[in-house]
Amino acid sequence: MSKINIFWFRRDLRLEDNVGLHHALNSGLKVVPVFIFDTDILNHLEDKAEKRVDYIHKALDGINQELKSHSSALKTYHGNPLDIFKNLMNEFEIDTVFCNRDYEPQAIKRDDEVAGFLRKNGIRFSNFKDQVIFEKQDILKNDQSPYTVFTPYSKKWKESLGEIEVYSTDFSQFALLKGHNDILTLQDIGFKKTEIEFAKPTIEKKIVASYHQYRDFPAMDHTTHLGIALRFGTISVRTCVRFALENNETWLNELIWREFFMQILFHFPHVVNHCFKKKYEDIPWRNNEEEFKSWCEGKTGYPIVDAGMRELNETGFMHNRVRMITASFLTKHLLIDWRWGEAYFATKLLDYDLSANNGNWQWAAGCGCDAAPYFRIFNPEEQTKKFDKDLKYIKKWLPESYDQKPMVEHKFARERALETYKKALN
After folding, report:
1. How many domains does the structure of the chain reveal?
2. pLDDT tens-digit profile of 199-243?
3. Of the listed 8, 257, 340, 363, which one is catalytic?
4. Residue 216 forms part of a structural domain
5. Does the predicted TM-score (pTM) go above 0.90?
């Protein structure tokens, strides 16, 4: 058996402009592409009709079909990654395992374990920067510490940006894999098909060009809907940044926010379960379970909040402006711990990304690195007048029979939140 290299797909589910894959294909050995349905992740998903798993599966099937047209195939496995690599050593004579880096604490731990095991067995582990433009220590302050405020970070990010490379894919370097070349089915891994559709993501110029004008109006739905594509890497971040540079700085800033939160998570992994600002751990959250349930179900009596929660529950998506309003309502009006809301969004959002979800929830609660001050409390009625004055968004998601009384009066809730925060912080 001749030596091969392996490319391990993870958050980079595409064949084009893929850094690690490019380097694997230019390594001088044939490449076997693999994907592992990681049981350490999948076993925590209670809903077996999980749209995100189906999305991944559809993306992988597209990759496999393309590889088959080049007489190769994607090999898929189901299990714990370390166990899978132990088996792969028996299946192939491996020189190097290539992949792209991930920055979440659990992923770093997984990669360290796999890399350590491979090295002990004489196999190299080679990983690359792919899902961001800048990572780790790339953007630091003059004193070499990480930025914790967005505006100076984004300024340095833009100053540091050079030419953005496109990474080619040499299909002739994939290993010839004959025989049974289908990927594992959803049933094989214990999941079911859903109604989610998958098409190769594209960027709409008319959306991006006027993004700064219309992005805050939920009824217009004038956003790119590329969150899930960036989350699972079915589109390259370099493609997005090049497009943003040519068409709209506001959208570019949104892409930079994504990287800002990723580097916060990388440098300050305690944020996964704790406030970035430690003093906010002293806030005595009310954590009323009945009120939390009403918020989850979109039954707060504030139409803009309820419309957002119902959109989320039905579609797995929520407009960004409404995400801010619903998060502010939970943490400020109801004084429910941001971690409860963050966990709920994590189960529902198709574009759920730990760093962005965590960063934005801490922003809403006022306890994050670049947080809104705790005394900024969104008034849902004023937000409605400003961003959905014709009630088009609200009418879309709330039935005509909607007759919910507000669960708490805004002025009272605002004063209660200010007093609670002030006491805890002083």
Report:
1. 3
2. 999 999 999 999 999 999 999 989 999 999 999 999 999 999 999
3. 257
4. yes
5. yes
